[in-house]
Amino acid sequence: MITVTEYTGQKIGVFGLGKAGEATVASLLAGGAEVFSWDDRATGTEHYNEWPWKELKALILSPGVPLTHPKPHPVAALAQRHDCPVIGDIELLYRAQPEARYIGITGTNGKSTTTTLIAHILKTAGLNVEVGGNLGTAALSLAPLGEDGIYVIELSSYQLDLVNTTRFNVAALLNVTPDHLDRHGSMEGYVAAKQHIFERQRPGDVAVIAVDDEYTRRVASALCLVPCEVVEVSSQRALENGVYVKDGYLYDTRHKAQGAHYNLSVIPTLTGRHNWQNAAAAYAAARACGVAPEVIYRAMQSFPGLRHRLQLAATINGVRFINDSKATNADATSNALAPYDHIYWILGGRPKAGGIASLGEYFPKIAHAFIIGEAAEEFAETLEGKVPCARSGTLDVAVREAAEKAFADGKKNAVVLLSPACASFDQFKNFEERGDAFCALANALSLRERARVGALPLAPSSPGASRHLLPEGENNGDDHAL
Question: What secondary structure, in 3-state letters, does 73-114 show?
Answer without folding.
Answer: CHHHHHHHHCCCCEECHHHHHHHHCCCCEEEEEECCCCHHHH
